[in-house]
Amino acid sequence: MERLFGSRLVWYGAFFSLAFLALAPYVFATVVSNVEISNVGQDTASISWNTDTNSDSTVNYGLDSSFGVVRDSAMGKTHMLSIEGLEPATTYYFRVVSADADGNINSTAGFQFVTKGTPDVKKVIKEIKELPPEDLKLVLQQPEVKPPAVIGLPNVVPNEGGATITWSTDRDTDSQVFLEPDSSYRASAKNPYSLEQGNPKEMAQKHVVNVIGLDPATVYHFIVSSTDASNLTGVSADDTFQTKATLPIIQNIKVTRVQENSATVSWSTPVPAKGIVSYTNLRTKAVKSAGSPIFASNQSINLTGLEFGTRYTAIISATNKAGDNFDSKPFSFLTVRDVVPPVISKVNNESTLFAGDEPKVQTIISWNTDEQASCQVFYTQGLVHDAATAADSLPKETDPLTNHTQVVVGFVAGTVYKFWLVCDDVAGNEAQSDDYVLITPIKEKNIIDIILENFQGTFGWVNKIGK
Asked: How far is CA 107 from the centre of its chain?
């Protein structure tokens, strides 16, 4: 009865604590060595050992220290016995015994192991119900083995594309972090985290996981998870952090269109950012600035009111949408007399035919210049222009612009025209574009016109109809 009661206490203690006892070998006899436990399954286990003389093999095992017997009479120095019919998730005690040919018996002290799997719950409940009250009280007093505890709150140091997350546990565990962007996080989901990073093979109390591959300037939900050698897991509460935004690093700085009293500064950034140019007159030490409040990856600022023949130093400051700032290294430029004509580009035209008794054509011509300029459109009918004959033109623009649009309403339908542009900047430098060709649209014929033209080609008398 005492042996059965002790066996049940071990079984029920394992069931209520949900933990396994660790291997705790005692000091064993010198003639029996290298006792090893292997192939532990739900209902089997193998025990092996060595002896210094040829001996037989015996394993005494059971649910308590009153060991049972498994015997193999074969003689040898290397021994292994397989035990079968065990219960899953159960602690077993054993010792090994070997006797040589002269009957000298050598045995070890007690060892123990835990089979894999989970207990047969129905069987456990049945046996619990059969326990006397005093035995059940002893079972319930068995100490509870708790999962690892995450000590305090995890510490998070975000960076542009990830974060370094550190935490501590009360015993050795692995290190795992589970994450989900705030935009897709659903607390009610069975598993709200789709991202997993960490060190599943690490066993430590101090944990460091460098999370990578995250989106910049994004809020993430996360938990840390720590699992010990007994497969018990402790997790932290859900928390959030935000990755840093990509810095607006200033690249490809160019100073163009340097003139007597102005200059254009352009640059690019890897993310949309607004920018400001601070520039200093090195002669007078006067400091001015100009900028754009628009977030863009490519910026261009025109500096005006400069002094002719003066050197300036400038710095560009860029700010991304997250408020992160980046300053360029200083650069300099010298104002000079403008002798460079404007550059004409992106010339386009589009014609529209307005139907009526007398169809009218409207043509829109557009183009750009790399600096403010006043331009005029010249055109002729046909592809050949007699130099002695003046070309037709539209009135010259009165205000200097960089984006230009002109409308022509006097073109004839179904006709070829040649046109070109002449532009001059505020310094009087003139530029003329290449020649461009356009064909105005023609009025579409209706079905009656097409039928009459076909008859006219076949029967000449069609022309006399109605005369």
From this structure: 62
Residue with tokens 């859900």: 238
**pLDDT tens readout for residues 207-221:** 999 999 999 989 999
Which of 78, 17, 80 shows the shortest CA–CA distance to 44?
80
Chain centroid, CA 5 distance in Å: 59
Q: Would you say the CATH fold of 251-334 matches that of 150-242?
A: yes
Helix axes 121-129, 2-17, angle to 10 degrees: 130
Which CATH number is 2-139 given? 2.60.40.10
What is the separation of C-alpha 302 from the centre of its chain, rounded to a whole number of angstroms?
37
Options 2.60.40.10, 1.20.140.10, 3.40.50.11540, 2.40.50.140; CATH of 344-439: 2.60.40.10
Q: Is the pTM of this model over 0.70?
A: no
Q: Give the span between the Cα atoms of 461 and 400, in whole angstroms.
A: 61
Q: What is the CATH number of domain 150-242?
A: 2.60.40.10
Report CA 191 to chain centroid distance, whole Å.
20
- Three-state DSSP at 108 gives coil
Position 13: which residue type? G
**Superfamily the domain 251-334 falls into:** Immunoglobulins (2.60.40.10)
pLDDT tens string 255-268: 988 888 899 999 99
